[in-house]
Design brief:
The chain is of the alpha+beta class. 35% of the residues lie in helices and 17% in strands. Strands 1, 2, 3, 4, 5 and 6 form a six-stranded antiparallel sheet that branches. Strands 7-9-8-10-11 form a five-stranded mixed sheet. β10 (259-262) and β11 (265-268) form a beta hairpin. α4 packs across α7. The radius of gyration is 20 Å and the shape is globular. The two termini are 30 Å apart.
């Protein structure tokens, strides 16, 4: 999917006091909220809205509510709202407390257990939600893999997370399962597979009919146990891990692939390296009185 301008991603929308989360979710009138959101955001009747139940946030007096929008079965503009304890007041954007990390709520919800490269002690952690069939993900993966290990070997850690767009990319989910099964067998082969499948993305049929043969040939070259891999994929051993990653992505308001979180800062799309690097430098030089993501 197309990238967004960096300027649109670096703005902040509010300042408030950050404190502990509420223990009880608010009473939410979803019918009334859907009508209000539909009018406010300008959604037509053709757009299907799904409103999640409120869940606690780190902002005192407010819970998180994610609204999923889809059109003709395709994922649309999912949005994150915060709702007051009386269920009557909503806002979008960020709440800050001076001296606290401004992305604390996001950081608490992002997964950190995907395959990674770079030191765990790095000052900058980048979590990338990606889709193996996405052409923009392919271009961005090349940018990341060619630049970060060479320019930031000690300062940046990159973590890969799954966000296959099943409605438009028919073999993306299956490729994610193959990736997990390969990682289960030999964790260090993941990044080799990551680079290989993006490099050969155009050779795989749009409906994925030759995906299995292609991956098994790769597995043979890597001295992996093909029978074990097939059993792992056919029984969907790791499908739950992918579903958890997708749920985390949706809860964080993701709308496209690739999407990166640089120390919790959301950056959407296939950003050119110089623009992406400028955000890394921003985080490397974070003011000393603002805590990092750890």
């Amino acid at each position: 999917m197309q990238s967004w301008p960096l300027s649109a991603l670096l703005g902040a929308l509010g300042i408030a006091i950050l404190a502990g989360a509420d223990t009880l979710p608010p009473k939410l009138d979803k019918v009334k909220l859907e009508s209000y959101v539909r009018y406010t955001e300008g959604y037509t009747a053709a757009v299907v809205l799904k409103i999640e139940d409120p869940v606690p946030s780190v902002y005192q007096g407010y819970s998180r509510v994610v609204v999923h929008a889809s059109l003709n079965g395709q994922i649309g503009g999912d949005k994150l709202y915060y709702v007051s304890s009386d269920g009557q007041h909503f806002f979008t954007g960020s709440m800050w407390k001076l001296g606290e990390n401004p992305f604390l709520d996001t950081l608490k919800r992002l997964p950190h257990d995907g395959p990674s490269f770079g030191p765990q002690t790095a000052k900058v952690t980048i979590i990338i939600f990606s889709d193996f069939q996405c052409p923009y993900c392919r271009a961005f993966a090349k940018t990341v893999r060619e630049n970060i290990p060479q320019q930031y070997p000690n300062d940046v850690r990159v973590i890969f997370e799954d966000f296959p767009l099943d409605k438009i990319h028919l073999w993306a989910h299956a490729a994610a399962e193959w990736a997990h099964c390969i990682t289960d067998q030999k964790p260090f082969v993941f990044w080799t597979f990551h680079d290989w499948i993006f490099e050969h993305q155009g050779e795989i049929a749009a409906n994925g009919t030759n995906l299995r043969d292609k991956v098994l040939a790769f597995a043979s070259d890597q001295k992996l146990d093909g029978g074990q891999l097939k059993a792992c994929v056919d029984t969907h051993v790791d499908a739950g891990k992918i579903a958890a990653s997708v749920a985390a992505a949706q809860a964080s308001g993701l709308e496209q692939t690739p999407t990166s979180f640089i120390n919790g800062r959301l950056i959407g799309g296939n950003l050119p390296w110089n623009s992406f690097k400028s955000v890394i430098e921003l985080e490397k030089n974070r003011p000393s009185d603002i805590p990092g993501p750890q």
